[in-house]
């Protein structure tokens, strides 16, 4: 077996246009029943792919009419690699929102019933989790102070998920608002989230009785972060009751399987981190809160660990601050062949300024058959913040028992926009590694006047995808 990282030839502009980001989604209140069925999702995927193929065909014909060279023939697997990603991401976000939407439906079905349910929940937190209740009230003040257009809007709640997604300024030829182009954004990087029980000494200090919840834990709920770009939840971890994560007390296991953030976290101003996690019981009424707590971090925050506590449990969140960053969104997918049978794998990302690696995906070779690596990647992390003057390093490892480790890394120079792409061969498996670059907003543009918000800066077209 041998590793070989091959630099791909520059992709044609026509093909890259498939990756143009849709206009930023405008937040709207979801009406009752406004969620997608499995049949509708399948139809959405089919139509989306069909429309993109039509767009490619149209652009190709226009170039032929002008006497330009026709598009290079691409392998079906390579075409699918690029075209499927945009659909995959939208479906992923849609599925998460759908799950939360269904959980909130009781609050939206009838005004009086919804108010009673909401008040009951707040009363529960006020009595059993007073610190978390205070945090929720501080969020209301944070929202009303820094996002005045949201003040008094009863349809924007603490539980809402942010509609803002990554890759907002990937295509620089669409123009970049001046406040983004001339500004810069520091960023908060989340490395890991660990679940732990309090020590006996900590329990005595907090006057906590013996534990009523025992290992292993069937955990579900939300861990999220909020910034001055949007006060709504930017999900780090999300599981519903029917898809809980089972964690044990062993050294390698008490970590939550993170899915986010879904976009880079800006840290020019205060950032809020909160967790609302439950342990699944035999029946729903036996579910217990594991953690319900939150914390606010200032830009001057110098620690590398945030601890959220509730009763006898705590979350240890490993974080780090980075200066003047861009957003890197990383995709990995099998192009040809299959992952070597029985081999475990790990893909991680980091920069020289980071204290830890961010594990993008990790899997046991015994559980991987065919192209299951793609399915695993859909549930994994994609977003990494990179210093504008630095480099993104993507590392990989593959191993099987005592046969030795196949490892290597790829280095990508940070870009303000555009894409970088490389092939990676692990044994007979050929993978594609795509990095999509975008600027990070220094703050929410809605705080500016319309003229300031739409004062665009234009720069040269984004560099076509290539390896460093």
Automatic annotation (TrEMBL):
**Keywords of this protein's UniProt record, alphabetized?**
Coiled coil
Q: Which residues form the DUF6598 domain?
A: 188-434
Q: Which residues form a coiled coil?
A: 37-64
Q: Which domain of life is it from?
A: Eukaryota
Signal peptide residue numbers: none
Task: Return the InterPro entries for the record.
Answer: DUF6598
State what protein this is by name: DUF6598 domain-containing protein
């Amino acid at each position: 077996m041998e590793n070989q990282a091959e630099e791909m030839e520059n992709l044609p502009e026509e093909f890259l246009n498939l990756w143009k980001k849709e206009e930023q989604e405008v937040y709207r209140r979801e009406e009752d029943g406004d969620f997608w069925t499995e049949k509708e999702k399948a139809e959405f995927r089919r139509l989306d792919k069909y429309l993109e193929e039509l767009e490619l065909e149209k652009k190709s014909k226009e170039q032929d009419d002008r006497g330009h060279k026709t598009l290079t023939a691409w392998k079906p697997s390579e075409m699918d690699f690029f075209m499927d990603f945009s659909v995959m991401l939208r479906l992923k976000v849609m599925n998460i929102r759908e799950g939360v939407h269904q959980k909130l439906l009781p609050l939206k079905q009838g005004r009086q019933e919804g108010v009673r349910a909401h008040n009951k929940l707040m009363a529960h937190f006020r009595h059993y989790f007073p610190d978390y209740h205070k945090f929720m009230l501080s969020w209301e003040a944070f929202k009303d102070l820094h996002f005045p257009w949201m003040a008094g809007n009863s349809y924007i709640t603490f539980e809402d998920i942010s509609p803002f997604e990554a890759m907002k300024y990937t295509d620089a030829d669409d123009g970049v608002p001046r406040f983004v182009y001339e500004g810069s954004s520091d960023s908060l990087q989340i490395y890991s989230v660990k679940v732990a029980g309090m020590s006996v000494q900590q329990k005595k200090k907090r006057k906590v009785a013996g534990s009523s919840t025992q290992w292993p834990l069937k955990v579900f709920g939300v861990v999220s972060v909020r910034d001055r770009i949007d006060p709504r939840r930017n999900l780090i971890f999300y599981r519903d009751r029917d898809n809980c994560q089972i964690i044990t007390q062993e050294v390698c296991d008490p970590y939550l399987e993170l899915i986010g953030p879904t976009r880079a976290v800006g840290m020019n101003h205060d950032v809020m981190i909160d967790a609302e996690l439950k342990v699944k019981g035999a029946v729903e009424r036996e579910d217990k809160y594991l953690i319900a707590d939150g914390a606010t971090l200032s830009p001057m925050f110098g620690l590398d660990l945030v601890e959220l506590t509730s009763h006898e449990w705590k979350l240890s969140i490993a974080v780090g601050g980075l200066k003047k960053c861009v957003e890197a969104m990383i995709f990995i997918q099998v192009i040809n062949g299959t992952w070597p049978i029985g081999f475990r794998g790990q893909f991680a990302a980091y920069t020289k300024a980071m204290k830890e690696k961010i594990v993008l995906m990790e899997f046991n070779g015994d559980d991987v058959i065919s192209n299951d690596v793609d399915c695993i990647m859909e549930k994994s992390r994609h977003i990494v913040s990179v210093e504008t003057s630095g480099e993104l390093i993507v590392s990989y490892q593959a191993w099987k028992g005592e046969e030795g480790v196949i490892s290597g890394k790829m280095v990508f120079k940070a870009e303000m926009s555009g894409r970088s792409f490389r092939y990676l061969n692990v044994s007979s498996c050929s993978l594609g590694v795509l990095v999509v670059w975008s600027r990070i907003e220094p703050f929410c543009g809605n705080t500016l006047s319309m003229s300031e918000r739409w004062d665009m800066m234009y720069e040269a077209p984004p560099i076509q995808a290539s390896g460093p």
